[in-house]
UniProtKB/TrEMBL annotation:
Organism, scientific name: Caulobacter segnis (strain ATCC 21756 / DSM 7131 / JCM 7823 / NBRC 15250 / LMG 17158 / TK0059)
UniProt topology in membrane: Multi-pass membrane protein
InterPro entries from the UniProt entry: AA/rel_permease1
Alphabetized UniProt keyword annotations: Membrane, Transmembrane, Transmembrane helix, Transport
Protein name: Amino acid permease-associated region
Entry GO CC: membrane
Parts of the chain that traverse the membrane: 32-55, 61-81, 102-128, 148-170, 177-201, 221-241, 262-283, 308-330, 359-378, 384-405, 417-437, 443-461
Length: 476
């Protein structure tokens, strides 16, 4: 069998692994809902709202709607595949069963890129909100910003990355309980923001609605602007539901709980985003708050609510780590499954007997996030993370189509409605958003996957579990 045709069998996708390479089942649907909401509601709404408004003006509301619609298509596909294959690994695992090992490696590499960069981006966003606190503690400016901002290293971002990694290493359920509490704090802060901004709502702030046009086109400085350019960036604010699918193997009742976690968290967060974006523009002109790294805090201060603004900033400082936690959790599980499949060294997939977590992979993920967040800017990190996610979502849509055609009679606990429309729409939407990304981001994405291809050809193609099985069969 050529490595091009190696595919996992769906019915045996989690079978045959020793206990030391099996994850413990400790999660139920409330944990998954909190994981999804914790992953989705974060830097995107607390920080990227301002950047998106700078690109699209009031039309940023359309950017949220478009990015949310694309993610909704992907979420429905994820719900079908995760309940059909309740295994850790998310889009990587689904691609392995539907399209084979080389495509699965490419998707897994994209997910590694996505999750690591998301952790780094949120750490940078957290640092922006915690800047005043660290300044008051006596930290010099050189340690509060990366080289792109004239500093040496963004030390707060490094600290939060490693702190979250340490929490995850302690245990999945313990991390999930902390996450549920922090998510409640985060949602409460957004509710307070909306209530205080509504009295200042001014409909004139929505005119002109699309000052930079709809399509992604180069602006005066060469940077792409317009509704679609903002959508390709704001897309970062919506994904996170895919992190829920990485918890499939640790879920007590995956057939029920995964559907609730994925679809439920996506629906709740879409409503939150649309409300907060509309209220932000109504309370302050887009061109004004778009210049702030903490736009919600800026708007509250401009409305003469300085103490509440400080509380919202504090809530962000407390609660934004839930996003890092969710994605770092997902990243460590992607790494874990790829190592368990032999595409990375198998030793990396060993689970700690006491905590039931892949401690080595969790700490490695934290270290990677710490390095990136300490040195790079939020915008560059977010855009590159989006590129990896878009290709993972494309793979999920393609997997739904292929498995529907190849195995139409296979039982499906959750079926994507009108899959002939939803799956292709998700694929085309992701392709369009990828094209709307800056050319620099697309080039970096290409180079990153050249490195990934070299690693696969040098190691994974010979060392994977399926490759070893082929070798053993030939020897017999």
């Amino acid at each position: 069998m050529s490595f091009w045709t190696r595919r996992k069998a769906i019915d045996t996708i989690t079978a045959g692994h020793a206990d030391s390479h099996q994850l413990k089942k400790t999660l139920s649907w409330p944990h998954l809902m909190a994981l999804g909401v914790g992953a989705i509601v974060g830097t995107g709404i607390y920080t990227l709202t301002g950047i998106g408004a700078g690109l699209a003006g009031p039309g940023v509301i359309l950017s949220f709607l478009i990015a949310g619609a694309v993610c909704a298509c992907a979420a429905l596909c994820y719900a079908e595949l995760s309940t059909m294959m309740p295994a850790a690994g998310s889009a990587y695992t689904y691609s392995y069963a539907a399209m084979g090992e080389p495509v699965a490696w490419f998707v897994g590499w994209s997910l590694i890129l996505e999750y690591t960069l998301v952790c780094a981006a949120v750490a940078v966003g957290w640092s922006a909100h915690a800047h005043g606190l660290f300044k008051a503690m006596g930290f010099p400016d050189a340690l509060l910003a990366g080289p792109h901002a004239g500093g040496l290293i963004n030390l707060p971002a490094v600290i939060i990355s490693m702190a979250v990694a340490g929490l995850l290493a302690l245990g999945t359920r313990e991390s999930a309980v902390v996450n549920m509490f922090l998510v409640a704090v985060k949602i409460a802060a957004l509710i307070v923001f909306v209530v205080l901004c509504l009295p200042a709502f001014d409909a004139s702030h929505f005119t002109p609605f699309m000052p930079n046009g709809f399509t992604a086109a180069p602006g005066p400085d060469g940077v792409k602007i317009g509704v679609m350019a903002a959508a390709s960036l704001i897309f970062f604010a919506f994904y996170g539901f895919d992190a829920v699918s990485t918890a499939a193997e640790e879920t007590k009742n995956p057939k029920r709980d995964l559907t609730i976690g994925i679809v439920g968290s996506m629906a709740v967060c879409t409503a939150i985003y649309m409300i907060v974006a509309a209220v932000s523009i109504g309370a302050s002109r887009a061109e004004v708050f778009s210049k702030s790294e903490a736009p919600l805090v800026f708007i509250l201060e401009s409305l003469q609510h300085p103490k509440i603004a400080q509380l919202v900033a504090l809530a962000a400082v407390i609660a934004l780590p839930t996003v890092i936690l969710a994605f770092m959790y997902g990243q460590s599980r992607i790494f874990f499954v790829m190592a368990r499949d032999g595409l990375l060294p198998r030793a990396l997939s060993r689970v700690n007997a006491k905590t039931g977590t892949p401690v080595m992979m969790t700490l490695l993920t934290g270290a990677l996030s710490a390095v990136l967040s300490g040195l790079l800017s939020l915008k560059d990190i977010a855009e590159l993370a989006n590129a990896g996610t878009l290709w993972a979502f494309i793979a999920v849509g393609a997997s739904v189509i292929l498995l529907r055609l190849r195995e139409p009679n296979r039982p499906r606990v959750f079926s994507t409605p009108i899959w002939q429309v939803v799956a292709p729409a998700g694929i085309l939407g992701c392709l369009y958003l990828f094209i709307s990304l800056p050319v620099k981001t697309q080039v970096y994405f290409f180079y990153a996957h050249l490195i990934g291809a070299a690693i696969y050809l040098a190691y994974g193609v010979r060392k994977s579990v399926l490759a070893q099985a082929e070798k053993a069969a030939k020897g017999a």
